[in-house]
Each structure stands twice: as C-alpha cells, then as structure tokens.
Amino acid sequence: MPDPLSLLPLAVAAAGGRLDGCEAAALVAAGHTLLQRTAPLVRALTGRRSAILLPPGPAFLVALAASDGRGALWLDPASSRVDLERQVRDAGVGAVFSVSTLLSRRPTDLPIVWLDDVPRAAHLDVGDVSRPVDLGNHFGLSLEGERGAVGRSEECLLEWPPGAPAPTGHTHRTLLDAARQIVADRKLTPLHVTAWTGSTPSLDSLVGRCLAPLLAGGTVVTA
Fold first, then answer.
1. Any idea what DSSP says for residue 163?
2. Residue ranges of the domains in the chain?
3. 3-state DSSP assignment of residue 148
4. Which helix (H) or strand (E) covers residue 182, if one does?
C-alpha cells in the first residue's frame, strides 16, 4: 500500500508548519472534511480534474487537499474569462475552488466551492443549489508514514502558461523533490518565516515560498 505521506498535501500536513496563522494540518484536514461532507462535489470530480482559482493563502492548501490526489489545474485570476472557460473545458475540470473576490472570473456551468472562511467553513454552489459546509469539526487525519517517502508519480498540479496550447503537469513526486531540495539547500528550519506573495500563478514561488518552508515545519505568511 502506498505511503500516505507520498501525497503532497499529507506530507505538508505532517511537517507541522503554519500558513497565515493556521496549522497546515488543519487546512489539509479541512480539505478532506469538505469532500466527506459534500457528496455532490465528489460526484462532480469523479473521473475529472479540479481547478484552483485562488490567490496565495490558506484556501490554496485546502483546495489542493480537497482535490484528493487528482490533478488540480491552477488558474490565473488575471486571465480573461474566455480563456478560463476554455482552459477548464479543455483540461476536463469537474469543479472549481475559489473565493468571492474572484466572482467575476468564475467559469460558468461548473460546481464551485467558495473558500472565503477556511478552515471553519466553505460554501458549495452546484446548479441551482447553494449550501454552506461546516468544516469546523475536522475528521482526524492519518499522518503515520515515512517523512521522506517518495512522492507518487500521479498528477498533482497543472499550470497553463500564457500562450501555451496545453497545461504543464507536475506530479506529487516532482513537487516534493523540488521542495525538499530547497529545504536542504537553504537549510530551512521550523524557525524560518517566509513570505509567499504574487497574484499570478508561479510554480517557483509556490515551491520555494510555500511548500518548502511548510515541509521544514516553518511559518508562511501572505500579503
């Protein structure tokens, strides 16, 4: 059976870091609780990818965890709505994670989860049905495993560079390897505080300023 810590979100949760004052473990637990309490979301994502339309912050980690091992397409909020519609269609996206400040960028005709109040609550819109989801009482996470477990070779995150004909995929393994290398190179420790900023998706920023510090058990803050 694969080591649970070979999944990027669980590896981050097990490291004990914090993101904007929230424990990374609590954010990942909120993502899993979201799936456990929203059967319509699970159905929408079955056999499909998710999409993340979010700025840096705690909601990003919740969305990545709620993607539950399937590929998550990281959308650029600066893209036109036409481009966003095309990207979610071409990438086979089943549902979108976002926040209300990006309402004008919301791709239409897809279920959407609003993550303005994580890790306490979320809000799910599916068709004509809109309902809150309480995330306050998280189910426990099983975080037993090898801290240095090799990441799975399954798709984790996709980015769609401007002008590219298709998205670029990154596996749990490639992301974990890159983040762990930065931890070693920079000698990151739980005492480090790192700023994760920027409104445009940047894999280098995500890995270097969010994932690596969290894997070291450190603190990440966003603007």
1. T
2. 4-173
3. coil
4. helix 172-186
CATH for 4-173?
A: 3.40.50.12780
User: What value does the mean pLDDT of the chain take?
Assistant: 91
Residue-wise pLDDT for 98-116, tens only, equals 999 999 988 888 999 999 9
* Bridge partners (DSSP) listed for residue 221: 195
- Tokens 């009482």 belong to which residue? 137
CA 157 to CA 170: how far, in whole Å? 5
Residue 93 to residue 19: CA distance in whole angstroms: 27
Neighbour tally for 127: CB within 10 Å: 8
E-only strand ranges, the chain: 18-19, 22-23, 49-53, 72-74, 93-98, 112-114, 121-126, 129-134, 155-159, 168-171, 193-196, 219-222
For residue 119, what are the CA distances in angstroms to 45, 51, 53, 212? Answer: 21, 19, 17, 21
Dist CA 75 CA 99 (whole Å)? 13
The fraction of the chain above a pLDDT of 90, given in percent, is 77
Sequence letter at residue 92: G
Nearest to 81, CA basis, from 61, 98, 62, 68? 98
